[in-house]
């Protein structure tokens, strides 16, 4: 009797795993990955896979949602500290964590008012803002791009002067929008976000040594540990097939 049941049980388990692999994968991704990830999700779907469900926000907001039980299968962060945050809370599969992408930090201005700025120690950005202007970036208290911006401004010796004049956005795309609309004369964003906008121009690139390296770590969440579809999508996004899309949209590839 038991011997007859074993093949049936194995078949049922295989069917369950196959069905699970055919379910749509929920991806929590940093706002800075929006354009590239949407393009890659379309490519993934065109290959016969279920279209992923994409949720974009600041890495901090997504990490806290996961901590509160939000059903994400993959987490794609804009920095290592927020991936550390979810890993320390046992919310990801540790050996799935990879950091396949890099980025650069740039200063942007509205496209119709863009003039090059040499970003070096002592550069007086406050003077460029004018008497009432603010500089848009993510909130340094929790948004990765804001943390990088704070590091770069500290390196320049400008943090104390500019901290009260920050337009602190919830994510990098919101900061970019403030500059596009002319509500902020300058903004500090990722090079990839600047490249996706027709309304701003890059006026300067912060030296790599002025801030911690900008990397984008990816990981499988603990709740999706047995989800073959989620693992396959992670391998695709972090692998050579997706690399041309990431590069086309301005990301660098980690070696």
Automatic annotation (TrEMBL):
GO terms for molecular function: metal ion binding; molybdate ion binding; tungstate binding. Residues 1-21 form the signal peptide. Belongs to the bacterial solute-binding protein ModA family. GO terms for biological process: molybdate ion transport. This is Molybdate ABC transporter substrate-binding protein. It comes from the Bacteria. One of its GO terms (cellular component) is outer membrane-bounded periplasmic space. NCBIfam families: modA, PRK10677.1. Keywords: Metal-binding, Molybdenum, Signal. InterPro entries: ModA, ModA/WtpA. Molybdate binds at residues 32, 59, 172, 190. The complex is composed of two ATP-binding proteins (ModC), two transmembrane proteins (ModB) and a solute-binding protein (ModA).
């Amino acid at each position: 009797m038991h011997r007859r049941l074993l093949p049936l049980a194995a078949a049922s388990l295989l069917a369950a795993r196959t069905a699970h692999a055919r379910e749509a994968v929920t991806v929590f991704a940093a706002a800075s990955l929006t354009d590239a990830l949407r393009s890659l999700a379309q490519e993934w779907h065109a290959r016969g896979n279920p279209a992923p469900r994409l949720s974009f926000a600041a890495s901090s907001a997504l990490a806290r949602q996961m901590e509160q039980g939000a059903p994400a299968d993959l987490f794609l962060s804009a920095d290592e500290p927020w991936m550390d945050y979810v890993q320390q809370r046992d919310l990801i599969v540790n050996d799935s964590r990879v950091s396949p992408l890099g980025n650069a930090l740039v200063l942007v201005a509205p496209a119709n008012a863009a003039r090059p700025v040499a970003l070096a120690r002592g550069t007086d950005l406050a003077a460029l803002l004018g008497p009432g202007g603010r500089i848009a970036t993510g909130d340094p208290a929790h948004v990765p791009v804001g943390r990088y911006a704070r590091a770069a401004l500290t390196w320049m010796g400008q943090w104390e002067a500019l901290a009260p004049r920050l337009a602190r956005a919830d994510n990098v795309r919101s900061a970019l929008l403030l500059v596009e609309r002319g509500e902020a004369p300058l903004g500090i964003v990722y090079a990839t976000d600047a490249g996706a906008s027709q309304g701003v121009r890059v006026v300067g690139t912060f030296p790599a040594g002025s801030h911690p390296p900008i990397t984008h770590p990816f990981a499988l969440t603990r709740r999706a540990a047995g989800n073959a579809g989620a693992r396959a999508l992670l391998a695709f996004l972090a692998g050579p097939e997706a690399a041309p899309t990431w590069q086309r949209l301005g990301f660098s590839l980690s070696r």
